[in-house]
Amino acid sequence: DLKHRVVIVGGGAAGITVAAELKRHDARLDVAIVEPADVHSYQPGWTLVGAGVFTRKQTAREERSLIPRGVQWIKAAVSAFDPDSNLVRLSDGRAVGYDYLVACPGLKIDWDAIAGLDETLGRNGVCSNYRADTAEYTWRLIREFQGGTALFTQPAMPIKCAGAPQKIMYLMADRLKRRGKLSASTLKFCLTGDALFGVPFFVPPLQKAVDGYGIEVCYRHTLKAVDGPKKTALFAVAGKDGATSEVAMQFDMIHVVPPQTGLDVVRASPLANAAGWIEVDPATLRHVRYPNVFSLGDAASTSNAKTAAAVRLQAPVAVANLQATMSGKPMPKAYDGYGSCPLTVALGKIVLAEFAYGGKVTPSFPFDPRVPRRSMWYLKTKFLPWLYWSHMLKGGTIDIKHRERGW
Ligand code: FAD
């Protein structure tokens, strides 16, 4: 059977970054990545695909080209975690043993939780930026939109990139405004929660964008079903008294963001907590029950914003603490919960929301982060993709300092 010193599950943002950093520190370390997919996606670019700013091609690379030199790629999916025997089982029947495991297989986007969605997604005006192909369809719908009703949905938290459900709404509103079609359009933001954003500090600039475009916000609305041919969406609406009612809305276009959970293979494993996420210490990223297991990225139980930005800061912590654990030393690094969400309030303008555990505002730049800025648009469209592909995934060492500032 197969056995490696370090096995990484998932070759996404977290898996590749961790592998590259481990190899940079110790080129001889025996590392394997278990990853079934041929294509690796830069998911933060999908919002821009939906808005017609990036092509889908710009967000995808061959997985093969990203596996760091000297790392063994096991091209299969993990079908079970067996941490009591220090092995993972693969979908092709094999098992892979390890001394240390880094589990970062991402999360499950639960498309099936919305009745009728599967049959109609990508057709009948039903789109989603949470998949590359249907993000392309988002852009087609926006380009061809001549007025009517557009709905944007957001499920319960946590989801990856909490801002993404509304980013595309502002970008569409701005495109319609420029084409003189905004007054002929009704845009509605239907969200399960009762606030525009989880960190109150960043709500005012979003409220300003909502008001400026004339977007109607429907709080406590959870999408339950979509009928594509009939162009109807059904929502469960939670009343303040706890009672739930159902509301049907007509649409010409709907951008859907389904609920998100831990992957089934994680939920079924001893690694998961009750909520279905891999249960790690929020600071050290080491598993609370299995000291030879680390986790980071979307799969982990940490309460940070599930973003690639978070992964960029988590990876050096997980790697340093794993190396220390391998050599029997105390773990030297702690993650502060940093994550970031570039909120595209207009074409060319971004509010860069950066925050850590407890909603602490932790900007990287010394100016008021609530102000929409063109410089942050360049950061999102030029600098961050470069940082991701050419630096982070290569195990790079640029350390951009973010800190708590007094606002
Ligand atoms: P992923 O990158 O999703 O990688 C998980 C990997 O695990 C995948 O390659 C998958 O194939 C593999 N895998 C799955 N199941 C198994 C299995 N059983 N066995 C082995 N491997 C498996 N982040 C930002 O920082 N800024 C943004 O603006 C932003 N916008 C976003 C917009 C959208 C529409 C989306 C969808 C995401 C956005 N994100 C953003 C979030 C960011 O992309 C994720 O947080 C990040 O990719 C998480 O990295 P990860 O490695 O944990 O998961």
From TrEMBL:
A Pfam short name: Pyr_redox_2
Sequence ranges assigned to domain FAD/NAD(P)-binding in this UniProt record: 5-107
InterPro entries per UniProt: FAD/NAD-bd_sf, FAD/NAD-binding_dom, Sulphide_quinone_reductase
PANTHER family registered for this protein in UniProt: SULFIDE:QUINONE OXIDOREDUCTASE, SULFIDE:QUINONE OXIDOREDUCTASE, MITOCHONDRIAL
Name this polypeptide is given: FAD-dependent oxidoreductase
